[in-house]
Design a protein that fits this description.
The protein has 72 residues and is an alpha+beta fold. The chain has a single domain, classed as Rossmann fold. It is built from 1 helix and 2 strands. The longest helix is centred in the first third of the chain and has 10 residues.
């Protein structure tokens, strides 16, 4: 497969969605930055293991909150 044939997508999936994606695309290489225990069986490569009960908060999903200004 040449580089022109490769597709890269940035998405966030539940382990159930990942299970269905793997069934639809069995030859795809699925990579992730963070992987939780339930989804690891469906991921080919990942960087960080996250606890199953952890809620991952990404900057694009949250509002920027600056600390309050200190007044003298």
């Amino acid at each position: 497969m040449g580089t022109a044939d490769r597709r890269q997508h940035v998405i966030s999936l539940t382990w159930e969605q990942l299970h269905h994606l793997r069934a639809m695309l069995p030859k795809a290489h699925i990579a992730a930055v963070y992987a939780k225990e339930r989804g690891m069986a469906h991921i080919d490569s990942f960087v960080v293991t996250a606890p199953q009960n952890a809620w991952l908060l990404f900057h694009w999903n949250s509002q920027l909150r600056l600390p309050p200004k200190k007044t003298a």
